[in-house]
Amino acid sequence: MTHKLRFAAATALALVLSTQSLLAEVPSTVGATYRAESSTEALAPGEKIENLFTKNMKQPYVLQKLTDRVYFYEGGFYGTIFYVGDRGVLLFDPLEGQGPGLLKAIAGVTDLPVTAIVYSHNHADHINDTPVILKAFPGAEIIATAATADQMRHLGSKHPAPTHVLGADEKSFDFEGLTVDVVRALNDAHAHDHAIFVLEGEKVAHIPDVINPDQPPFWAFAGSASYLGYRELVEQIGSLDWDYLSGGHGNVGSRADVTFYLQFLDDLEAAVGQAMGEVPWGFGVDASKLTAHTPMLPAWYDEIARRATESLRSKYGDYYGFEAATPANAEMVAEYLFSYR
């Protein structure tokens, strides 16, 4: 399903549920304190926005103040941040389908123009509405790492090209006196050109699609090519100096979310390892009917993933998206453990 079809499906479901007063909300993975959404009152580090699933289903977008100058935006389950300077706004990742909402949200807190856009990585669902922002603010520069610029050229990207390319030796850039640290991801678990952006002083970090705060890892570790390097990327994020995490999806993140992820990965690896020792090769396949060996490995992984998911359910089953995401993640861990024994 394309991103546009997924967005349309989510929009249709939101319309169906729009008459309901409240949708089901699940427990916090980190025992967070929830606060009412506010564009004027900042969250304290560790606090989260209440009823975020319901808000994503029923509101055009969510806007939450994080610090005096940084705001968290989420619409259609896609999130990002923007920084309000003295002369302009620094916007990260103009999310697909969210350009109009972003413009409205920004206008709700400042009259200043968007003067700079940052691409965190070259995935269309996070940068597709850049033309919407540029139509409103045609003078805005586009900042991206050389890895992202190279990736866009290599793939023949139709998205607006970066106008300010950060070389491999550039560790930060300046926006109106704000230093934004640029930390290249040590592993390309999610994207070949991923970088972590940390707003110094504000202590806000932005890296989509690795940690979904207040949720277990998303299906297939958010579209990662493999499990190889994923844990190390989570650890790298945790090693940096920040109080608030913008993860591209999920709630506002905190240090507790990193701790939760690492514990979940420990438990997932253990559960998969246990299941690998229990499930015999050839499980679920009638060898007398085979015309190729191809079904053997998928059937083996599938049963391992099923058993691992079942073993984790008592501890994690009530959390957001566990049932839909964990089998695919367990299968990826099984492939990783089998390949790199």
TrEMBL record:
Organism: Rhodobium gokarnense
Keywords for this protein: Signal
Protein name listed in UniProt: Glyoxylase-like metal-dependent hydrolase (Beta-lactamase superfamily II)
InterPro entries: Metallo-B-lactamas, NDM-1-like, RibonucZ/Hydroxyglut_hydro
Domain Metallo-beta-lactamase: 78-249
Signal peptide region: 1-24
A Pfam family recorded for this sequence: Lactamase_B
